[in-house]
Amino acid sequence: MQYTHNFNPTISDEDIFSEIVREKEDIGYYNLPFQDTAPLKEYAKSVKQSNIVVIGIGGSTLGTYAIYKYLKHSRKLDKKLIFLETTDPIDIQSKIQSIDLQDTLFIVISKSGTTVETVSIFKYINSLVVCDKTNTVIVTENDSKLNRYAQINGMQVFEIPKNVGGRFSVFSAVGLLPLAIVGIDIDELLKGAKKLHDAFFIKKDDVQERLLKKARFLVEYKNSFNINVVFSYSSRLEGFNKWYIQLWGESLGKIDINNTRQGLTPIGIIGPIDQHSFLQLIIEGRRDKTVTVIKVENFDNDLKIPAITLEGLEELDYLNDLEFSSLIKSQADATIEAIQNLNDIPCDVITIDGVCESAIASLMYEYELLTSLCGKFMYINTYDQPGVESGKIILKKKLQS
Amino acid sequence: MQYTHNFNPTISDEDIFSEIVREKEDIGYYNLPFQDTAPLKEYAKSVKQSNIVVIGIGGSTLGTYAIYKYLKHSRKLDKKLIFLETTDPIDIQSKIQSIDLQDTLFIVISKSGTTVETVSIFKYINSLVVCDKTNTVIVTENDSKLNRYAQINGMQVFEIPKNVGGRFSVFSAVGLLPLAIVGIDIDELLKGAKKLHDAFFIKKDDVQERLLKKARFLVEYKNSFNINVVFSYSSRLEGFNKWYIQLWGESLGKIDINNTRQGLTPIGIIGPIDQHSFLQLIIEGRRDKTVTVIKVENFDNDLKIPAITLEGLEELDYLNDLEFSSLIKSQADATIEAIQNLNDIPCDVITIDGVCESAIASLMYEYELLTSLCGKFMYINTYDQPGVESGKIILKKKLQS
């Protein structure tokens, strides 16, 4: 007998882990926690401007925004961070009108160096203010055309390593440079990422086992549960949700080596707001969703519901003297209990320590690892995005004609 | 022979339409375009404060935010609108710190009158500033406990009709009161809603046929395409996307009369930002999504990419002299073409006229009609939300113990 072709069955946990260890040689994001941050901190210290405008889109802004949004009200930041990331003219105009351009540093971020949105907006900025090495810094690949532009104009460049994809670049200069400038502790960020790195690769606290199990479940049950809901109980995690959606959607929406379409659909919602919106669909709708609830253990905030009785509303006096941080945590617990009582919605809970650099970084690094693991189980290339090229070609043709 | 039980097959377009016409007698939102706005406008004119704070959650804020976000940069509004809608203490604190509470009108909105989040926040506000009839107005049902509180304190009340559900209440006082106060033309809003009402019920411009066809398609193919993506090409539509997600998810995620779980999962994304995020999943991922692209025909904005050459980036000079509004429209068209070329992703396009009251109102009324139609095809009660009650009971027990 002779055989041609093979099926590719789901591989074992050990094989997946070995493949990730092998992949770590080529894929850059894994090792970003170990970089030298001195040049970034030195540049950050030298910045005099009060407004920091990041011009970028997608992977060039989402991770930075996630961390900034999570921390900005819990840190005394003396600079304002603004993102110019869309071609919507009303959006561009309203953001620019809100700042003094003479007191602004522009950080132009594009991995390829020729992102249409980024270059369009940067050109527009050039018509409003002289952009030179005193107010413009570039983050790009070392051989991009944007890098050439920077060299010609003597502008400082921070490099995005070739093997770090945009959506995995938050712990490169892409995220660290703007965050360091506004006053976020980037060493604490990397410490948080490293904590997860070590726990996964050096096998601590069952992190490796837990993530392997979770990835295997999500992929093996992908036909039953094609939607993954992240239900974050803090408005501060809104940026994280958006970042997760890009990471998950763009990494896992692929055609696999067996030529079948893969993909898990990410949804990010915010509690308690979306208890009044999306929760009904989770509870009574079709069983096509897994749910991951993210709770914040310590809000480091003692805002309280005062012991005031509103005449007519006495029945709500049981809320009196309750801290808002306790209330939101109880709301999360009630939602978790309601979902788990149903017994047919896969649900896990991640509790992050607090509103600090290391907590959000650990969470983000964990999601990067989880994405890589799911990609391996799916036999896809987690790190490319061939599906968006066709639209770019059509756009270019439209505009050039 | 004898038979018991019947199957309930999908019903005809004519029957659905008759049922909607019958439902219009009981369900209040259909007729909101015909209300008298004089009392709302009169109250709005009397408001002296510069800051308008809406305290509410879910259906009490999402529609208002959708319209405000869409129009605020295109109208000269002299008052600022702020939403307090979550129990996240850091969110509450940072928003309150940004305004002068002595120069603020509080609009407390709760249909039931006993929404935990709303009453908690309002209690907290009471500890910061005296709330009385000079700075507080109530929007609620006529027999709620919040209404009693308002009567006791001599505060003005605007009523939410019993037969208007929270998520269908944007064209009641819930949305119209705050919008009128900040300077949005609420008569133009109702005109836009009425335009869709008339086109649907009086059969103009094929609106009835188109919506019936769309609803039938979405429901009949719900097992293949359980996810509905709204891809809005304007950052101004971010609020609309959130409102749509609540409307769709909470209305359609139900158990039907045959005791089977129904539900279509709404996703809202923003172009061109999410071309760099979610588009890859749409293009190469599993075929489990329908896509509705929303384009804005007229941005009424001539912001232009200047004819500047950046040395090194000459290849992007084809963008020179292009208006941003043309660029974003071309980006939408390129995405539509890329999706339609694939031939296996159901995709339709809605082009709204401009950044004006009537355009956004027509769009929202259309989505309300579409939701009602899908609910009819699914044999569910579109207007209740029994699935979220269990969590509320668990929360109350937790807090009272």
Structure commentary:
Chains A, B: It is an enzyme of class 5 (isomerase). Chains A, B: This is Glucose-6-phosphate isomerase. Chains A, B: Belongs to the GPI family. Chains A, B: One of its GO terms (cellular component) is cytosol. Chains A, B: GO terms for molecular function: carbohydrate derivative binding; glucose-6-phosphate isomerase activity; monosaccharide binding. The structure is a homodimer of 401-residue chains. With 401 residues, chain A is of the alpha/beta class. Chain A folds into two domains: 28-184, Glucose-6-phosphate isomerase like protein, domain 1 (Rossmann fold, 3-Layer(aba) Sandwich); 204-377, Rossmann fold (3-Layer(aba) Sandwich), CATH 3.40.50. Helices cover 43% and strands 13% of the residues of chain A. In chain A, the strands form two sheets. Chain A has a five-stranded parallel beta sheet, sandwiched between helices. A four-stranded parallel beta sheet of chain A has the order 7-6-8-9, sandwiched between helices. In chain A, β4, α6 (145-152) and β5 (157-159) form a beta-alpha-beta unit. In chain A, α8 (186-201) crosses α13 (357-377). The radius of gyration of chain A is 23 Å and the shape is globular. Chain A starts with 12 loop residues before the first helix and ends with a helix.
